[in-house]
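Appendix B, example 12.
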Amino acid sequence: MSLPKGFLVGAATAAHQVEGNNTNSDYWLQEHMPHTGFAEPSGTACDHYHRYEEDIKLLADAGLNTYRFSVEWARIEPEEGRYDEQEIAHYRDVIRCCKDHGVEPMVTLLHFTSPVWLIRKGGWAAESTIEDFRRYAIYVTKQLGSELKYICTINEANMGLQIAAISKRYQLMAEQARKAAGKQSEGKVQVGMNFSKMMENAKFAAMENMQAFGSPQPPLFISAKTPETDALIFRAHRAAADAIKALYPQIKVGITLSLHDLQALPGGEPYVRAGWDEEFRHYLPWIQNDDFLGVQNYTRTLYGEGGQLPAPEGAELTQMNYEFYPEALEHVIRRVHEDFRGDLIVTENGVAVADDSRRVEFIHRALAGVERCLADGLPVKGYMYWSLLDNFEWQKGYSMTFGLIAVDRQTFRRTPKESLSVLGEYARETAL
């Protein structure tokens, strides 16, 4: 079968990873610390802040019909209570550019980065952040809501618990085999982390964090979470989502989650049940009333009787050191649908590889799974590939190439890859 008419087919980015010079954000401060855990600073990134028209045109010319991007809180509210009208106007221009090219804009309000002032006053461990985020969501919605059909409040709101579990596991592994364990751990979380460098720099980082944020362990969005701070993020989502719907009931509002395809080998079943409860099911009370859920998946995770297992021997690994396994997306969509009965949008799915023919293969196999879900009547409404551009993969820097479009690091020249046109062919089917 082909994708249905009106199906959203697009690509995604995050502001900090592509725009450049996000100087009022917590990440910018971290990147420039003497003992940073980042491989390199984001700098000008892809200069998407100035080149968004070129990038959106490339997306549209390939046939894609949707662009998921984030607005940057640290730009819009650089100081508490002071909104920058020039910055909100910038994002209004991005939305207008999408519309001019026949592209549906899908806005994410928070994609990992936060204003420095928010972290200094307690960040994602402070009760006050719920109201701060709600107020920011109201401001953005009042300014941009008339032009939007879709808003994602928070990207991968469950990431903090995943990082907490992996950080704990890494510390245990590092005592036995620091170098070998580093790559294994980093390949088990769907975000660019550099655990080995973080461990080496821990004693220096505490002092530098104190100077920058007023805390030796600042409560960033992706900091390891406790059950209480995990819940705080979803309370912030609920407050923002309800406020958005009160202003514009017609806007479809949802959240996105990082979801692995958890698979059990003999003896691994209890681990899979517990893992899925932690990664997804315990959030259901917070999200059941949302218009859609953003499904974000990149790979699978195997469990045996002793717990989590490495990728199978001989498996193809991506640059992120996890298994090349596009079939994971279909499995996750089906499993999510067992409990969440609303619409599902794949808001991220992609692969970091140097060989674009492997990206083409990944897209074909992932979308074949989406088509099977649709054939069985599952309410999948869209697919966003991650990412539109080769960009700043957080602590990994610019070494990971997820993009449908290559970006020259010196000249910023854009070079579309074959994978962009391949995904565009799927999108063209939906317009017929």
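The longest helix spans residues 159-186. The longest strand covers residues 104-110.
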